[in-house]
Amino acid sequence: MSLYQAPLRDFQFVLHELLETSTVMQACGRSDFDAGTIDQVLAAAGEFAEGVIAPLNASGDEAGCELRDGVVTTPAGFRGAYRQYIDNGWSAIACSAEHGGSGFPTAVENAVNEIFGGANMAFSAYPGMSQATYVNVRANASEELKALYLPKMARGEWAGTMCLTEPQAGTDLGLLRTRAVPQPDGTYRITGSKIFISGGEHDLTENIVHLVLARLPDAPPGTKGISLFLVPKVIPNADGTLRERNAVVCGSIEHKMGIHANATCTMNFDGATGWLVGEANKGLAGMFVQMNHLRLGVGITAIGVMEAAWQKALRYANERVQGRAPGSTAPADLIVLHADVRRMLLTMKANVEGLRALALWASQLVDVSHAHPDADRRRDAESLVALLTPIVKAVGSDVALESTITAMQVFGGHGFIRESGVEQHVRDVRIVSLYEGTNGVQAMDLLGRKVIADGGIRMRAFVDQVMAHAETLHARPETQEFAGPVLQLARRVREISSELVALSVADQHAAGAASVPYLRLAGHLALSHVWLRTVEATRTKADSGDPFYASKLATARFYLKRLLPQTVALCEEIRAGAGVVMDEAALPSSS
Amino acid sequence: MSLYQAPLRDFQFVLHELLETSTVMQACGRSDFDAGTIDQVLAAAGEFAEGVIAPLNASGDEAGCELRDGVVTTPAGFRGAYRQYIDNGWSAIACSAEHGGSGFPTAVENAVNEIFGGANMAFSAYPGMSQATYVNVRANASEELKALYLPKMARGEWAGTMCLTEPQAGTDLGLLRTRAVPQPDGTYRITGSKIFISGGEHDLTENIVHLVLARLPDAPPGTKGISLFLVPKVIPNADGTLRERNAVVCGSIEHKMGIHANATCTMNFDGATGWLVGEANKGLAGMFVQMNHLRLGVGITAIGVMEAAWQKALRYANERVQGRAPGSTAPADLIVLHADVRRMLLTMKANVEGLRALALWASQLVDVSHAHPDADRRRDAESLVALLTPIVKAVGSDVALESTITAMQVFGGHGFIRESGVEQHVRDVRIVSLYEGTNGVQAMDLLGRKVIADGGIRMRAFVDQVMAHAETLHARPETQEFAGPVLQLARRVREISSELVALSVADQHAAGAASVPYLRLAGHLALSHVWLRTVEATRTKADSGDPFYASKLATARFYLKRLLPQTVALCEEIRAGAGVVMDEAALPSSS
Fold it and tell me: How distant, in Å, are the alpha carbons of A286, A442, B376, B473, B479 from that of A142?
């Protein structure tokens, strides 16, 4: 039984037919990634995922990590798999050529990350965090630090972490207390305790590069007094050989609902030597390079887990015989023939394929925002990435959780049993709505910082883009039925965004009360746009009878008719206003 | 830190002020249950739940059950707690006086069950299943079997199980293969293997009474050839002393997502001695007495778990300081002051309180349907119980799952850590949507068997009842804002029910494609009715400033304005029709 199969055909569709990645990258001055090269990479990723890490997923969950005397041992097989991972060059896939990287487009990098996340989320989170750390160091550190650290990190010989959270400072990093005291030699002594550090300690690499937020002695209070430091587990010599153990140790690891094989550590810094990254007191902005990279990344991991769960459910529905389907004369039929099971399967299919296309589009826009020769295109792409990042993170993770729960439901009682493998997906993916900024934080990032703060201009531009596209397709008889609901939704989002911008002036709770349904609504806007582009890319081919395209088109129809109606309710919820939420009588403060 | 607190005040409100249980029971000829007696029972249940079984909830999850040589050992503390449970008379709370029971009304029994389920779902599932077995034997068995078994079961000395599922027969019991061969002495030899048997084996009682579905040698195929047998673990003498071990053993126990402390067993019957219960080949109907009892019961357990999770989230929100609330000048505020956290808390509060009132109303109707002197009242109550049972089971469990997930979200990253206790609630409650008939089965039971099969008459009667009540309140200015949305919803349900009755004649998949959103829609109809009755019962008292009633009224407003809008989307989903679901192109059968 296959535990996981990389959905290569769908990646090909999204990258080549929907996003035209090769062409877009060529316009960005990168002509080395034709479709054949991309397909080869994806096929190799699939082989590694299916053959090496998927088989370690259940056993890793069962065994978990162990901490003894400050040393974390990953589950059996993880060290070997990681060795293969870096030997195959996966850690370097998107790193710069100057550090020995392959420099693949972000869309390809994230397709690969989806594959690895789907095969084994706990395993893939180790290099996932390291990649994000690499990006942070590359964006913010001095040339000296970059030269010393980045080649090692690109090769995957040194891992990386992000040390933000403290017991009293999670969402609110302004409350953090870890101190950094400057030393005569230009380094800093870092003292404090950080919690929830993913991969804070493990046995996969010889060194771990911690990026730590801390306060200088003279720092102003709150978020304006936070600086970013690089604190290696082992201090290296200038030539990259290892010199001495730094004063940072893992004090404990968490017992969690899922991703048991990924060590979540309390890291104690006891006068550890660190190097300042970027400017003093501007550490939070620096860290956001990594944070945004991760938000897209964890959203994509969630999509991978959703894919794995959907594959299991689809296979089970095609094997399990139970109940007679309407009109059948057999004693009992495959459950895939029952309407309610099909409803569940199609919901999962529409969710995973729509979100995949959306996430890879957002990934591609990251490259366009950096490398396109046209400044307007760069600016537009950057603006869209800002909107789509919280959507991919939060809608991706919430919908992935819903879909993995639905996959369990297809299994009936068998889904509750560990052996089915599907309940692990629920437990694993549950964390994605919580970390790298809870989904409530994503929602306020979207509505507060990215919609209301600029008077809704950025969102209006996106709505206009969606509407212009939908209007074109609405004018063609053959695509009218698909474009209609998208047009209607775009109008609704335009109206409700304006209302919220206006309302937030008078009511300070308007944004907070509306943010979560607004994010989901914006997610549907983005997804419906992606599905309409999918209709455009598949309709003619579907008519010619190719089952892949016919299935895509039918899935688009299902999404637009059965899932998009959720947006009506979201609008009503938002319009109910902040009053019912803030009513002091409803939740007496003494309760 | 309190792990769980029985919501006594809310039970008092529901039983005394909303349902007027004492008065209704008096009309049913039961004058022995005044408010004071009921309150005493609930307080005692709370004490037992808080002091004895809540402290075993996390440790039971951690330890799980162990199977060695056919013997299942429950987690440390469970045997002692069970001894206390039966010594306190909890097993007999709703049993008949002739078997030594206390004969409490079903609404009180289920209030107690909610309390025990909330404190420790895995523990309470053992006696919960035994109670349902008692009800089955009492309804269906011969006088001889009843006299021998029921007093022991009422005292909790003997436990009970329900043995239905086989590897190839879950939802579709017509496929079951376990055989029963008649013996010259009037007994039967039962041979076969049953899976997913909750409490199939354990160390809490000296005997376990299995109610087993099996086929006689001459039985017709399918569901019309199923008979019900009583198969004790230890065969008793006529005086109730234990004679000899029967040929039934536990072959394995499942490793599950949750309720680790409740043993889910494979039970192997190898020519075990059994006694026929009820008529031959009519076993499925007999078993449905137990099944319906359980469906209400597990829905109520889910509400208990939801209550436990909501309590934890509310406490955390009142302790955790993070982020500055709009308008505040403090460095950071309690998270309960943030609008999005309030939205989550109020969603949970509205869910748990609404479903509690609905479930206890359905419980009370069970007694009315049996004992009311007026035949019309009995018939109406029975009809309503038939509608409300799948709603309490399925909406209760789905909403409980959503709410426990929301409770985790309030905790942020801390919610993912075992120590918080909240993630266990998600893992435990997940099973309720799957067992005793998956929620898809509940939805078809409601729409297929209870709405479409009688041409929608029963549902129309319920809609009329809801509308008549809402119209009365709509005519009063002070309750108009509450009644308006309920009226609107009732009209929608009336229309869509008629449409589905008509549609199902022509389209054999119409019911299956609509069933799950229809069930949720019907759930909102029932909940909105309950909330409107709550408005009626609280409005005047709320105006006088009592915080309990003011909170109730504000929660009603939140439910009607923020949660009820979901129904608009559900109607649109249903009206999208079966075509998009059954489209062969969407899910090619080869995939």
Answer: 13, 30, 84, 71, 67
Q: At A588, is the pLDDT very low, low, confident or very high (cuts 50, 70, 90)?
A: confident
Q: Which amino acid is at A287?
A: M
Tally C-beta pairs within 8 A across A and B: 292
CB–CB contact B565 A573 (8 Å) = yes
Contact assignment for A340 to B444 by CB distance below 8 Å: yes
Q: Is B128 left (phi over 0), alpha (psi -120 to 50) or beta?
A: alpha
pLDDT confidence bin for B1, thresholds 50/70/90: low
Q: Are B65 and B75 in contact (CB under 8 A)?
A: yes
Kindly state whether residues B99 and B174 are assigned to the same domain: no
Q: Which residues of A touch B341 (CB under 8 A)?
A: 440
Average pLDDT over residues A422-448: 98
**CB neighbour class for B297 (10 Å; exposed up to 12, middle 13-18, buried from 19):** buried
Place of tokens 């389907």: A325
Domain ends where: B254, B282, B310?
A: B282
Within this chain, do residues B458 and B528 fall inside the same structural domain, yes or no?
Answer: yes
Gap from A345 CA to chain B (nearest CA, Å): 8
Are B263 and B60 contacting, i.e. CB atoms less than 8 angstroms apart?
no
Residue A484 touches chain B, beta carbons under 8 Å: no
Of A396, A353, B572, A9, give the one whose Cα is nearest residue B580.
B572
- Kindly report the nearest CA distance between residue B281 and chain A, in angstroms: 18
pLDDT tens figures, B104-157: 999 999 999 999 999 999 999 999 999 999 999 999 999 999 999 999 999 999
Please check whether residues B489 and B525 belong to one and the same domain: yes
Q: Which of B457, B298, B306, B305 is nearest to B392 (CA)?
A: B298
Question: DSSP character for B399?
Answer: H
DSSP code string of B422-473: HHHHHHHHGGGGTSSS-HHHHHHIIIIIIIITTTTHHHHHHHHHHHHHHHHH
Residues of A in contact with B427 (CB under 8 A): 257, 427
Q: Give the model confidence (pLDDT) of B297-313 as tens digits.
A: 999 999 999 999 999 99
Which of A257, A307, A321 is most worth mutating to test chain B (most B CB atoms within 10 A of its CB)?
Answer: A257
Q: Is residue B81 part of a domain?
A: yes
For residue A264, what are the domain limits?
Answer: 159-281
Overall average pLDDT of the A54-76 stretch: 97
Count the residues in chain A.
Answer: 591
Is there a single domain that holds both residue A133 and residue A15?
yes
Task: Based on the fold, state whether residues B552 and B479 are members of the same structural domain.
Answer: yes
pTM of the model: 0.98
Whole-number pLDDT of residue A189: 98
- Interface predicted TM-score (ipTM) over 0.95: yes
Does one domain contain both B455 and B543?
Answer: yes
Residues of A taking part in catalysis: 436
CB contact under 8 A, A340 and B430: no
**CB proximity list for B490: less than 8 A, separation 6 or greater:** B463, B466, B467, B470, B525
Q: Which of A257, A339, A439 sits opposite B513 (nearest CB)?
A: A339
B326 touching A (Cβ < 8 Å):
yes
Q: Which residues contact B306 (CB under 8 A, 6 or more apart)?
A: B118, B348, B351, B352, B355, B399, B400, B403, B404, B425, B429
Q: Tell me whether A551 touches chain B (CB under 8 Å).
A: yes
For residue A53, the domain's CATH number is: 1.10.540.10
Residue B545 has a pLDDT of 86
Which has the closest alpha carbon to A472: A484, A457, A462? Answer: A484
Domain boundary (A244, A264, A281) is at: A281
Tally the domains of chain B: 3
Q: What are the tens digits of pLDDT across the range A415-425?
A: 999 999 999 99
Place of tokens 């894919």: A307
**Across the interface, do A587 and B345 touch by the CB < 8 Å criterion?**
yes
